[in-house]
Structures are given as C-alpha cells and as structure tokens.
Design brief:
It is built from eight helices and 13 strands.
C-alpha cells in the first residue's frame, strides 16, 4: 500500500504485528462437547492486536502507522479501507496476492468475557525482509511489536529500531532467546501472560511486574482487567485501579490500553499518568461490543 496520511518525517507510534478479521458471535454460553450453542448473527470486522492498537492511538490524535501483511482477498481490502478511514498510515501494509487474510473467531458470553481462536495465515506472516524494508525509511518515537511473531522479524527489528522507545507485547515466541526482554524499553503483558513468562503463579500484578523487571526490561506494565494495572521501573512503581463500569465485551480492551499507553509515552507523559490514561481507555472499550473498529461492520 502506498496510501499514507502521516508526515514523512516522524510517527508518534509505529505498530508491528498482525491484522486480521474478527468474526464475532455473542452466545448464551459456550457449547458443551458434542452440543451446539445458538448465538447472535455473525459480525466481520477488521481486528488483530496491532491494528486495534494503531486505530486507538490514531483516534486519540496520534500519528501512527502499521507494519503488517494481509491477503489479497475481500478481508484484506476491508482492513486496508478501515485503516485509511481511521487515518492510520498504510505505506507499510503489504497485500500478499492469492493469500487469505487471517481471522479471529470470537465468542462473547453474557458476562462480556471473550474466547478467541486465531486462525493464522502463514503467507501473510511478517518476515525479516518485510521488517528491513519497513525500517529503511520508518522513524517513530515509539515502536510497538508483538513478541509472538517469529524470531527473525523480531530480531531484525531489534537491530534496526525505528526510534528511541521499543515496547514489546505478548508472550515471546518460543524460539526467541531468553535475553530478548533485556532489549525492551517497555514490556506490556496481562496478568495471565506475566505468570506464563515467569513460570509461576502470583495473584498480585505489581509482584508480577517486579519479577518481570528483574528479567531485563527497563519498564514493565502488567494489566489486570477490572483490577487496573501495575507498573514498575528503576524510578517508580505503583498500581492504577480501574473504574467500575458495566462490561459488555472485553475484546480489544488490552489493545485499547496499549494503544493509549504507547501514544502517551510518545508524548513524554510520566509513566503513572500514562498508565492511568491507558486504564481508562480499556475501561471505556469494555462497555461496547467489539474492539476499536465497530464502525466498520460488514
């Protein structure tokens, strides 16, 4: 894609990862083995963690771009159209001909909890070549990368950082080296991901953040759903409670959190205030159905 709306000189935040179509159905309960649950009509919306994060930051006034691949199918074009509409720069969105765009199958239960199965599209996975091509002319104050991407593209991104602040998100791909986290300025994970990385159980998000900080990231933020988020670095630490709100759908809440956090850090907002802004963004998202791209139902 060559369409782009951000200035050529610098982005606030560059997001590197996956974009897919969210196929969402609301169900009264999850189907039991061998049984069928009858749900709502199906919606198909642009989604994926990096796309959701980029749109969240763009809606808050940030200059954002997305480095990702999509298939040359209807879903891929739907994603590209949504990004252009939301003023996310698409010069590093690559359409892979004859490939199918990935999809996430999402079941949402009455309590607002979401159960997600991601159907990857191997031909659209980012490679080292895609990262090299993007970083050749990409400049951003903050770069957010999905750590569950394969080793090669993440390693290349670490070697060719587009800017001074690198944020890693998600559990690292199993092929990554153990010292990967030491290259991150900020690690952002949810409480479940934190315990998986630590190979231990902790019921306190700040304890988890502190333990992750010992693994090397300069700053760690651990989200805890309705309990807010915890943060720590060598200068400060603390927790930010989440406001009590009615929960409709938790899909995309973590992405809204990260999108706003990344933009706040790009604007040099102190960490406690940046986390507070992000917590409130997540709380706003759970009060509506779907992730950040509800206006693009098809």
């Amino acid at each position: 894609m060559t369409e782009g709306l951000a200035p050529d000189d610098m982005f606030d935040v560059a997001f590197v990862g996956r974009a897919n179509i969210d196929l969402t159905v609301h169900v009264p309960h999850r189907a039991r083995p061998g049984r069928t649950a009858v749900g709502s009509s199906l919606t198909a919306r642009p989604g994926g963690k990096s796309l959701n994060q980029a749109i969240t930051a763009a809606r808050a006034g940030g200059r954002t771009c997305l480095v990702t691949n999509v298939g040359g199918d209807t879903w891929g074009h739907q994603i590209a159209d949504a990004l252009v509409h939301e003023k996310v720069d698409t010069r590093h969105l690559t359409v892979i001909p004859d490939a199918t765009t990935g999809a996430a199958v999402i079941e949402v239960t009455p309590d607002g909890e979401s159960y997600i199965t991601l159907a990857l599209s191997p031909p659209t996975e980012l490679t080292a070549h895609h990262i090299l091509h993007a970083t050749a002319d990409l400049h951003a104050t903050v770069t957010v990368v999905q750590l569950d991407l394969p080793t090669e593209p993440v390693t290349v991104l670490l070697q060719h950082r587009p800017g001074p602040i690198l944020i890693g998100n998600l559990i690292p791909h199993p092929d990554h080296t153990p010292d990967l986290l030491r290259h991150l300025d900020v690690l952002v994970v949810n409480h479940h991901e934190a315990t998986a990385i630590l190979h231990t159980t902790t019921h306190d998000a700040l304890d988890a953040a502190t333990a992750l900080h010992r693994l090397g990231p300069r700053t760690v933020v651990v989200t805890a759903g309705p309990h807010g988020a915890a943060y720590t670095n060598e200068h400060t630490h603390g927790t930010i409670p989440a406001p009590t709100v009615p929960v409709v759908d938790t899909t995309g809440a973590g992405d809204a959190f990260l999108g706003r956090l990344a933009l706040a850090l790009a604007r040099h907002t102190p960490l406690p205030e940046a986390v507070t802004t992000a917590v409130h963004a997540g709380a706003e998202t759970v009060q509506q159905s779907g992730a950040t791209t509800r206006s693009h139902d098809r």
